[in-house]
Each structure stands twice: as C-alpha cells, then as structure tokens.
Design brief:
By secondary structure, the protein is mainly β. It is built from two helices and 22 strands. The longest helix is centred in the N-terminal third of the chain and has 16 residues.
Length: 471
C-alpha cells in the first residue's frame, strides 16, 4: 500500500503548485482550483467487534490524514482524493494495520482540443467474501489502474471523429482467497459525434476490449460494443444516454458467443436552488475492473470531464466470482436537498448480476434504500440522522441477507479548522439458513483538524456505510 500513498502525496504536492483558472464543476457546484485536507484521530467502542452471534467487545483507535484536490487549468483536469490511517485494537482482537483509500483522475491535453492522455487510479479495501462479516480478516487490498489516449479530430463545422485506447489492470494484492484473480485488458474505441448545439451532441460509437484473467483456468473474453449516445449539459445539470448492443466471445469454444442489449444512463439535474437529482444506471458486461471501480467509489474522465462512478449499489467486489464476466443491470436514484441550516439526502438502488459463464448458479439481485438529514441546531453545532436497508437475494445455495443500519450524531465545529463528532450506530444483519447473523452497537468520538471535504458539498446527509471507519 505504501507505493499508492507515496503516489498520492506526490500528486497533491505537484498539483498544488500548478496554477488554475476558475471553472465551474457541475457535480459539486464549487470552482477550480480548490483543495481540502485534514488530520484526524478516532476512538470507537463496540460490543461486537468480531461481528459474530456471540459478541466480543473492543475499542478501536485510529489516526490518519485525508486530502483532496481539484484543478482545471484548461490543459489539465485533475480530481484527487485519498485517506490513509493506522488502526489498532485495544484488546488485540485483531492485528493493528494501515488502511487507505485513493481515487484519482487526470486528463492532460497534450495537444489542446485534439489529443488528451488520461490516467485513472482507484485503490482501497474490499471484502474477500461478501457473504461473510466485514471484519479485518475479510479485507483485501485492491487497485484498479486505467490509462490511455483520447483523440479528437474536427470534420467540417459540426462533426468530430473520436478515438482512443486504454490499458487497464485490476489487482487484488496479497489476497489469500484462492478464487481471487487479477485481470488485464486492452481496449480501443472510435466514434463520430455531431455537435447539435453548444451544449448537446449525438454520436455513434464502437469499442473492442480484450480481457485476460490471471491463471489458465480462467478463460479470456472479447467484448465488442456498438452504441448511439446523446449528451447534453446546461447550467442546471447534464445527461448522457447510451444505447446499443454488446457481444461477448470466449476463448473456450464450448461457451459460445452472446449478444445482449447495452444501456448506460447518467443524469444530474438542479431541480431548484435547493433540490438536486442524480440518476444513473446501466446494462453491461462487467469485468473485475468495472466492478472494482464502482465498488470503491471511483471516477472516470468522459470527454475531458471528471465524473464520479455511481452506477449500482455495489459496496464490495465478490472475489469468489472474479474469474468471470457478469451481465449487470443496475439503477440508482438519489435526491438531495441543501439549505444553509438543513440538508436531506434520499437514495435507492437495485442491481442484478447474471454469471452465465459460471459452472454453478451464482446469480443474485440486491437493493438498497437509505436516507439522512443534517440540521444545524446552533451556529457551531449540527445534528445528523442516517439510516439504510440493504437486501441481497442470490440464486442457488448462497444465503440471502438483510442488513439495517441506523446512526445519530453531533458535529461540533470548534473554530474554523477543528471539528469534533460524537456518534452512535446500530446495525442488524439477518441471513437465511447457512449465513452469519449478527448485530452491534457502536459509539465513536472523531476529532479532525483541517479544511472540510469539498466532495460533501451536495451530499452532506447521504448515508454511506458504518459511521467513521469500518473495522
């Protein structure tokens, strides 16, 4: 993990030194350049640190640093965020460890308006087995790197020829799960885009990807796509709709080829000065890389714009299924209300995964519904409430489960750069026969010093996972 922390730190230093012109960011409402950083310390006490039917109590202590940076200089678009921390368990229930997360997207115009080079990296921890409790013993370091060029040639006054290529690699480092396999892919894409107006366009696109899994037991796949896409952007938001077809071929002749409809949707809309709507969804074949990027909350560069990955509800990559493609259908809807004293967030998502190339029946579907509210009760004191419910229903012999989480807390702003948060969380996981059911209560005290995180501007009340850091 140290190499990713080093890259993240050097990237922040280099980009902080770069100048930048002011430019609106359609997803945060803030302007470039801006950055944020903080150091933090946290102490959590839980009555069930092992997440087992018979709870074992322990206190978790953690300290770390977090930082984020956004720059748009005209030639360079960069969005970098990362956290690294050291945690230890007072009763030594688990070994002490260093944890970190990093999401970075860079797009550099080698020839402005003609030739861009894109680098994207997503690093963090995922669950080795999504049907086992999320303890440190079930944690795997994972990284997804993607890089390549984008080329744009104007044809006449209204048309553009778009082309590009990508190398991508999904790496599950130091994994003890025998079924966890890394993959690498090479892809190329080409498209013809018509500029309908200054804020909208229509395009025809084709893409080819070769996906190779580590190990001879996992077949390689060829994924071909043909789509038509419509994109628009305005002061109140933006949207991209892409429709077409995908064909999958495998090196193993007995698996054959399959053609399936393809759809992708991303919509951001300011309904009013206070209400914002986000909708995203897709039907596509996913490999390790796409699943990992979505699970870790990654971002991607589309037509020179850094946009977040919000498709689906995946919070983990199932390493048991990592050696095959999945046809994934997903939809997520989020509604945010932001006022000076109150913010509200509501979200819901549904996802279906179909592993048609797997020898066993491992298909599943899941849904998540959540909400939260922040209310400033005094000039320096804010209260928050959050709750969410997740249900997974797999086919075959794997157990289904239903998890509910409720959280309440107080955020006290002590001066301009210091914040103290006291929170309480309860979670209850119930599973079908053969699964592990548990519940826990948790109290956390979190102290941070630094500039608040800019990416929370539109999602101050959004429910995430367990509060603070997960163990």
């Amino acid at each position: 993990m140290k190499q990713y922390v080093l890259v993240y730190t050097l990237g922040l230093i280099a980009l902080s030194a770069a100048g930048g012109v002011l430019a609106d960011d359609q997803y945060t409402g803030l302007r470039s350049p801006y950055s944020d950083w903080s150091v933090f310390a946290e102490a959590d006490h839980t009555d069930n640190v092992t997440l087992a039917p018979g709870g074992v109590a322990d206190t978790i202590e953690m300290a770390g640093v977090r930082g984020g940076l956004y720059r748009d200089t005209g030639r360079l678009i960069a969005d970098i965020n990362g956290t690294v921390g050291y945690e230890q368990f007072q009763n030594h229930t688990f070994d002490s460890s260093t944890r970190g997360q990093f999401v970075g997207s860079l797009s550099y115009a080698v020839v402005p308006g003609r030739f861009n080079w894109v680098v994207q990296d997503t690093y963090g921890q995922v669950l080795g087995d999504v049907y086992a409790p999320p303890t440190p013993l079930n944690r795997v370091n994972a990284n997804y790197l993607m890089t390549g060029p984008d080329v744009n040639f104007s044809i006449g006054s209204n048309f553009d020829l778009l082309a590009g290529a990508r190398f991508a690699a999904a790496d599950f480092a130091n994994s003890s799960y025998v079924n966890a396999v890394n993959d690498q892919s090479l892809s190329a894409h080409v498209g013809l885009r018509e500029r309908l107006s200054k804020s909208s366009s229509l395009s025809l696109n084709g893409a080819y990807t070769r996906i190779a899994y580590q190990g001879s037991e996992s077949p390689a796949f060829d994924r071909s796509e043909v789509t038509a896409a419509y994109a628009s952007r305005s002061e109140r938001g933006g949207a991209t709709v892409e429709l077409g077809a995908t064909q999958i071929k495998s090196d193993r002749g007995n698996l054959g080829a399959q053609t399936s409809p393809l759809a992708r949707l991303m919509l951001f809309r300011r309904l009013t000065p206070s209400w914002n709507l986000n909708v995203s969804g897709s039907r596509e074949f996913r490999d390790n890389g796409l699943g990992l990027q979505a699970a870790l909350g990654g971002s991607q560069v589309l037509n020179g714009q850094v946009v977040p990955i919000t498709v689906g509800s995946g919070s983990a990559v199932d390493l048991l299924l990592a050696g095959s493609l999945s046809r994934t259908d997903s939809l997520r809807v989020a509604l945010d209300f932001v006022r000076p004293r109150t913010s509200i967030a509501l979200s819901g998502s549904v996802q279906k995964d179909h592993y048609q190339y797997s020898a066993t029946l491992l298909d599943r579907e899941s849904w998540t519904v959540g909400g939260g509210v922040n209310r400033r009760v005094r000039p320096l004191l804010t209260a928050h409430l959050r709750a969410n419910v997740t249900k997974r229903a797999p086919d075959g012999t794997l157990p289904g489960d239903r998890t509910t989480q409720e959280e309440a807390g107080l955020d006290w702003r002590v001066g301009r750069l210091t914040q103290v948060t006291l929170g309480y969380e309860h979670a209850n996981r119930a599973t079908d026969f053969g699964g592990v059911s548990y519940q826990y209560n948790r109290i956390a005290l979190h102290v941070s010093y630094g500039v608040p995180e800019h990416h929370l501007a539109f999602q101050q009340a959004a429910p995430s996972g367990p509060m603070g850091t997960t163990y």
